[in-house]
Amino acid sequence: MREASRTTLxxxxxxxxxxxxxxxxxxxxxxxxxxGATTIRYSRWGLPEEIQAERExxxxxxxxxxxxxxxxxxxxxxxxxxxxxxxxAAGTAPDVFLLNGGYSNDYAARGQLENLQPWVDADTSLTxxxxxxxxxxxxxxxxxLWALPRDCNTVAIYYNKTIFEKRKVPFPTPDWTWQDFxxxxxxxxxxxNGDGRTDIFGFNxxxxxxxxxxxxxxxQNNGEILSRDRTRCLLAEPPAVEALRFYSDLxxxxxxxxxxxxxxxxxxxxxxxxxxAMSAEGSWMIRTFREAQGFKWAIAPLPKGKRKAxxxxxxxxxxxxxxxxxxxxxxxxxxxxxxxxxxxxxKSGTSIxxxxxxxxxxxxxxxTVEGKRYFLDQLAYxxxxxxTRNFNxxxxxxxxxxxxxxxxxxxxESAARDAAQAVDKILAENQKSNxxxx
Amino acid sequence: MSVRSYSxxxxxxxxxxxxxxxxxxxxxxxxxxxxxxxxxxxxxYQWDNLTPPRFVGLANWxxxxxxxxxxxxxxxxxxxxxxSVPTGVILALGLxxxxxxxxxxxxxxxxxxxxxxxxxxxxxxxxxxxxxxxxYGLLNYVIEQIGKLVGLKIKPIAWLNDPxxxxxxxxxxxxxxxxxxxxxxxxxxLQNVPRELYEAAAIDGANRFRQFxxxxxxxxxxxxxxxxxxxxxxxxxxxxxxxxMARDGRPANSTLTLxxxxxxxxxxxLNMGYACTIGMALFVLIGAVTGIQLxxxxxxxxx
Lengths: 438, 303
What we know:
The complex is a heterodimer.
Chain A lengths: L1 H33 L3 E8 L2 H17 L3 E8 L1 H14 L5 E5 H9 L7 H6 L10 H5 L2 E2 L2 E2 L2 E13 H6 L11 H11 L21 H11 L17 H15 L7 H13 L5 E5 L3 H4 L7 E4 L10 E9 L6 H12 L1 H10 L3 E2 L2 H4 L2 H4 L7 H7 L3 E2 L6 H16 L5 H24 L3
Parallel strand pairs in A: 1-2, 1-3, 9-11
Antiparallel strand pairs in A: 3-9, 4-5, 6-7, 6-8, 6-9, 6-10
Chain B lengths: L7 H35 L2 E2 L7 E2 L3 H7 L2 H32 L6 H13 L2 H11 L6 H12 L16 H26 L3 H9 L4 H29 L3 H6 L12 H11 L3 H29 L3
Antiparallel strand pairs in B: 1-2
């Protein structure tokens, strides 16, 4: 009898707990609707500091828009896209979400994004001319606009001044060339304790990213990555191959850059630990490198090949096409592109604000970091990446071929040829699915 | 206890029985059977997760058989299975035999060997990434020191960044991590072997090895069967450690496994239909291997 009652009790407890769980789910729902305000959801990825800053900014928005309540959702960079796609599949994506150029074509083609052009046209309080034109171009497709610009980022050379001084190598100048770059990299590469192993490398030539690593070398050599109409990959053309040879020789021939073993896992850390004289990194890395201890560093523009070229990539905020509260979502979108928000972004020092007047104001530029100005100078001629559908697949196809070169298993000519072939295949698939009715 | 009747109390018990089963049964249907059936269907569709699925018949399967990367992933997975399962099982049995000894403080060792099992794979994989590091890694340091002792200068090995060593390195870590789990199962089996059998064998003049071969092994063979089957299934589905230690199948796709490839198609390339096809292929493969084992077990497992 006692035994039985104890079982009953635990079953009741279990049932009660489940019931409570349901109940709490319900109350959360009703609390939101009871306030009478429109509730919208905003989602972004980010580091903990960024997330804290975002919360405060959104609180400000809610103050000025008492009729709108914003639920902010976060995910780490790695999880963000999976989560967003799952939500889209379920038809429950957030009303407003952060987007990059790599995914906007894929989502737009599948009808997940609201075309913001009509909203911009109907709203006189917003002029796109105030933003860096590239940040708008990334999200523009013919007459459609898939996101409002938030920030823009470019890539430049971060260099370790302490190593340069120690090796008596002059600092990079704003108009330096590939040749200058190679000489400095060679001069800074050193085996300090004579054990036959390089301790400090002149540079770190990665191969993962078109944006940070290999893309702009090709442009600087008057080459192209994809054709304008995105039907052909031009990596096997002479200017591209020549650029890739210069870039891969840094590892293969001159050995001024760590090989696969060291570069793929600890690329940016190597600069932080003072084992790299120069590193090509995005403007968003400033915050991370502030932690650098034991050495001084500064920023130089990318060296110049046959011409000056640099990448620009920007993030934007997009509206979900199936949002039920588009008017409220538009208010939030406008706020995220507005001057007050952009000023806060400038102060946080993570990214360059897309709003030009804010980026060029002391808010962004007044900083102890030396050479930050070069980021903005580069924006004058920087070009967006060759975004198209399946951009991630394209980057990966190239990565795989370059990796073979870095591993010493392939020469750069055949790698470029095979990469172009693999990318052409992806582009052809894109063409095919464009023709099919969606 | 032993008498089952349909008395009022019995009926009540039956009701409670069903009720208590319900959470598990419900979960099984909602989160396992449902998705599995759906995946089976989706293997014949093209679906990007976002727009409605389109029926494509056997196109996914055609693509699968002509997909170099699929075969590469399959070869890598088989390499992982062959490399990790036999080693894991034999080492776990050996360890179980050692910690089965009745010695003071043996409980501590059992706990120590079991610790990796309760640690998350992600954490373990992160730590091992450092162990394998070519510059600062513990493993290279140890090898270098040993080299110095015998007067050899050994160049550090880039374990995770060399296509030849990356998968073996991951296998070694996985074996280490999974050892404790199988050890505990073997330990339980060893302690259930009747002592009389050993006594009888000893009287018959069997030495320790013969006792192990003719008494221990047959007695624990059902458990051995269980361990081999579950290890094989787990090994075919390897994902976490590859995801952490060798993102994107690095280097040169030498660590791309079937489940990683499936994941890429499902969540990165917006190819859920094709991902389901890969999943079904893996399902068939695991089913076949398990089926073969079920047949073969009649030859060596003592019921």
